[in-house]
Specification:
It contains 15 helices and 13 strands. Helix 4 runs parallel beside helix 5, helix 7 crosses helix 9 and helix 11 crosses helix 12. The longest helix is centred in the middle third of the chain and has 32 residues.
Length: 421
């Protein structure tokens, strides 16, 4: 049987995947947003992950928000986001709704593959029962499931969908083979067939948990070294000369992966009676870095004789990472809020972010043409290439005499800034 794919959710994960699969198979990209579908049909991708030329060349790829247009597909790949709520608990609402959508068109023999990051067991314990209930079909008799966790790195033009090794799995040995073959047909870097769906789910969730804990260690070290009067980057450069020293750096930890995935694992761990000490300690450390960065700047401003209450601060960058327009779970907002609590007037500029989205998500109107010579402090929070190309000397022109330039991620030399983590 010829594979006809439907990719459910056309964001940072789904769209590049749909384009990659369309080189080998007929693919229908489905998204509930009519605006998103209209943009894609016009060859525009607001995520900047796929250029207009690639969209035009994908002749076997179509886009829709109409359910009947994916009813003829036999493989459904779900790539919706899995965020956390205000209490830092998993919010499976997008996943539940996507499963209900697929259930309405599910037919005998179809396979549903999930790519969304979840805790171990979520596919079979949460998603599959919804598919059964809505479709009236029986799991592993009438339809089947797979799990192949996304490994998209937004803004990274080197590590793309096809050049990152892919973990695959299926609900039966035969389906596992078919899912693996499907992905192997487009993934140049190869695939790894996990022994079960739960193993694949667990593998994904610990990838970013490991990074989160390592960055938390660097953040704590940065706090210690600041008290000792040591430059953290100098220390890391020295330690990095050992062959097995891991090259993590301190900083804000946000986004839809590292800042979220550990909470999925800790949720499941607590559900089975284990309190995850180290993982949650790392989360607390990383979640505190926005306030720490803000207080570090305020202390430096006080020492420099700058005004705090009513003082003007410019923050360059709001997205969760450089060279990417994604504002989801950005921790730069913590810096903004903390500085405002100190009484500072904070302007935020971002060369990549959408002003409309910044207003919708955080109530921030971006100041993308800030004035020169009016700020007591400037923070380079997100080192977009636009700001790196400006150079430290040009960034400093935004400052008043004696103002503080905080190079938060230490992208410039230590003599080019007044403060860095």
């Amino acid at each position: 049987m010829e594979s006809k794919l439907a990719v459910i959710g056309l964001g940072y994960v789904g769209l590049p995947l749909a384009v990659a699969f369309a080189e080998k198979y007929p693919v229908v990209g489905f998204d509930i947003s009519p605006k998103r579908i209209a943009q894609l049909n016009e060859g525009e991708d607001y995520t900047r992950e796929v250029d207009s030329e690639a969209l035009r060349q994908a002749s076997s790829l179509s886009f829709t928000n109409h359910l009947d247009e994916i009813a003829s597909c036999n493989i459904y790949i779900v790539t919706v986001p899995t965020p956390i709520d205000e209490f830092k608990s998993p919010d499976l609402t997008p996943l539940v709704k996507a499963s209900e959508t697929v259930g309405q068109v599910l037919k005998s023999g179809d396979i549903v593959v999930y790519e969304s990051t979840v805790y171990p067991g979520a596919t079979e314990e949460v998603c599959v029962p919804i598919l059964e209930r809505v479709s009236g079909l029986t799991f592993n008799k009438d339809f089947f499931a797979g799990y192949s966790p996304e490994r998209i790195n937004p803004g990274d033009k080197e590590h793309r969908v096809t050049s990152i090794k892919k973990v695959t799995s299926g609900s039966t040995p035969e389906v596992a083979d078919r899912v693996d073959s499907l992905y192997a047909s487009i993934i140049i870097a190869g695939t790894h067939k996990a022994s079960s769906i739960k193993v694949a789910e667990a593998a994904k969730v610990i990838e970013n948990t490991q990074r989160d804990v390592n960055i938390a260690l660097m953040n704590e070290l940065a706090m210690i070294f600041a008290r000792l009067g040591l430059d953290t980057q100098d220390v890391l450069a020295a330690a990095g000369t050992k062959w097995n020293f891991l090259p993590f750096k301190p900083g804000l930890v946000g986004g839809h992966c590292i800042g979220v995935d550990p909470y999925y694992l800790t949720h499941k761990a607590q559900a089975v009676g284990h309190h995850p000490e180290m993982i949650l300690a790392g989360r607390r450390m990383n979640d505190s870095m926005g306030a720490y960065a803000a207080s570090s700047l305020v202390k430096a401003m006080i020492k420099a004789g700058q005004t705090i209450s009513g003082g003007r601060i410019l923050i360059l960058g709001l997205t969760f990472k450089e060279n990417c327009p994604d504002l989801r779970n950005t921790r730069v907002i913590d810096v903004v809020r903390e500085l405002r609590d100190f009484g500072c007037q904070v302007d935020v500029a971002d060369a990549w972010a959408s002003n409309e989205e910044a207003q919708h998500e955080y109530g921030i109107s971006l100041a993308n043409q800030p004035e020169a010579g009016v700020y007591e402090g400037v923070i380079l929070a997100v080192p977009h290439r636009d700001y790196i190309e400006m150079g430290a000397s040009e960034i400093r022109t935004y400052l008043k005499p004696g103002g503080i330039f905080f190079d938060l991620k230490a992208v410039f030399g230590k003599l080019e800034s007044d403060l860095r983590l």
